[in-house]
Amino acid sequence: MIYETEDELLFKAREAHGKTFREIDQYSRLNNTRATGALGQIVEESFFEYKVNSNAEADFSNLGIELKVTPFKQNNNKSLSAKERLVLNIINYMTEAEKSFYESSFWKKNQKLLLMFYEWKKEVDRGDYKIIETILFKYPEEDLAVIKSDWTLIQAKIQAGLAHELSEGDTLYLGACTKGANKNSLREQPFSDEHAMQRAYSLKQSYMTALVRQYISKEKLVHFSSLEELQEKSIEQLLNERFEPFIGMTMEEMALRLNIQINPRNRSAVPNLISALLGVKGTKLDQIAEFAKANIQFKTVRVQQNGRPKESMSFKNIDFEEIVREQWEDSYIRNYFVETQILFVVFQFDEQGVLRFKNIKLWHMPMQTIERELYEYWAEVRKVLDEGVILTKTKKGVENNFPKSDFNGVAHVRPKGADGNDKVQLPDGQSITKQCYWLNASYIGRIVSDIEE
DNA sequence: GCATGATCATGC
DNA sequence: GCATGATCATGC
């Protein structure tokens, strides 16, 4: 069956809404394969009735439209999120290096996507997942500007003979995610003898979540930058430009200049300053389009006169049941740092002890640090859990044998509870004050100082 | 002066 | 009621 127009195709696609994969599946794919791509294949061969292929051309080639069947999920707080990144075509390092963006394999195959969303539910058999919504997706111009710059960055690494150093954190919306059975899925690259991990273009999970919320939850996101700006400059440059005029000011002075009311002691003071300063006063930061799509999370840093923060930085409390069960590759802490861009908003105490805005830094943890120090840290926590957590009463409180800040210079474990009764149970049954993932103050100091890493 | 255990305070 | 950003307090 050939679909002559986009409307015709969309009309057909919408007939799948409310159907489960079991209802659609004519060739018993559900029973015969456990492969992750099976759900997409069921839609291809049983619903649209064309042969599953891996052509460089888009699936509906006469229309230039690529079919993607992709999951979303409901969170505990009822909001919706994409369940995973959207994996596109594999990058052929040998041929992609010479192409322009519009000649690239990414653009050829994925410029128009028929996105069919199904709802993933824990504890539900995959045959019972239902297709909920379909959109014919064409990148908005604002997003395309960022995607082009992401693509250019990926290509620049290939051209520099550094395909083996590509990582998802390098880019904002379009990623180069690993794709292959294991670490041995390697490919050659044109400007280096080193083999590189096989990777595919992908739309990041945060980008897909923004689409889910826009099209299914009908949420509105607000851009802080204009199309013209995004076509000329990177998001990082634009952020630097927006913050630059406020360097040296106290929070009160910033608020006065921005004509907003804040209480510097309130937790909302810094996010309120950020949204006002970006020209989207009153918008929650997770409703800013660029932040949502690139998963930019802000963190405030207060440094002393010597440029070093007095305090370390805490993240999520450690879920001990989770950490003993998980694999490194899909561990909470690895995913967090692979997928999160952190916007450090740095304030510094001056000679009078007055806190003044110093600078910002858009940062993601380098892949080498994730795979070395962060991995060692994670492995050490598990080792302690496995070999035995030793709790010792001291004058200062209850000491434990989790990694301390001298472990490897990057991260440590430290308590974080609401009060003396805020405890959890360890896998071995002992009760312990809730513990948290912390990045060392000295490590944060190195990141936010001007010294290159 | 730093490291580390403890816990406050706010916002959802 | 809980999660989390923030910071205190004390011993070495």
Chart the SSEs and their pairings.
Layout lengths: L5 H9 L6 H4 L4 H4 L5 H10 L17 E10 L5 E3 L3 E5 L2 H4 L8 H6 L1 E8 L10 E9 L2 H19 L14 E5 L7 E4 L2 E6 L1 E5 L1 H11 L11 H6 L2 H9 L7 H8 L10 H9 L11 H6 L1 E8 L9 E5 L2 H6 L6 H8 L1 E9 L5 E9 L3 H21 L4 E3 L2 E3 L11 E5 L7 E3 L5 E3 L1 E5 L1 H8 L5
Parallel strand pairs: 1-4, 10-12
Antiparallel strand pairs: 1-2, 3-9, 4-5, 6-9, 7-8, 11-19, 12-13, 14-15, 16-19, 17-18
Helix pairs in contact: 11-12, 15-16
The chain binds a DNA duplex (12 and 12 nucleotides) through strand 10, strand 11, strand 15 and strand 16.
Give structural attributes.
ECO RV Endonuclease, Chain A, DNA-binding, three-stranded antiparallel beta sheet, globular, alpha+beta, 33% helix, 17 helices, four-stranded mixed beta sheet, 19 strands, 453 residues
Write up what this structure looks like:
The chain has a domain at 6-215: DNA mismatch repair MutH/Restriction endonuclease, type II (ECO RV Endonuclease, Chain A). The radius of gyration is 24 Å and the shape is globular. The mean pLDDT is 93. By secondary structure, the chain is α+β, with helices and mostly antiparallel strands. A hairpin with a 5-residue loop joins β1 and β2. 32% of the residues are buried. The protein has helices at 6-14, 21-24, 29-32, 38-47, 93-96, 105-110, 141-159, 205-215, 227-232, 235-243, 251-258, 269-277, 289-294, 320-325, 332-339, 367-387, 441-448, and strands at residues 65-74, 80-82, 86-90, 112-119, 130-138, 174-178, 186-189, 192-197, 199-203, 296-303, 313-317, 341-349, 355-363, 392-394, 397-399, 411-415, 423-425, 431-433, 435-439. The chain has a four-stranded mixed sheet with strand order 2-1-4-5, sandwiched between helices. Strands 3-9-6 form a three-stranded antiparallel sheet. It binds a DNA duplex (12 and 12 nucleotides) through β10, β11, β15 and β16.
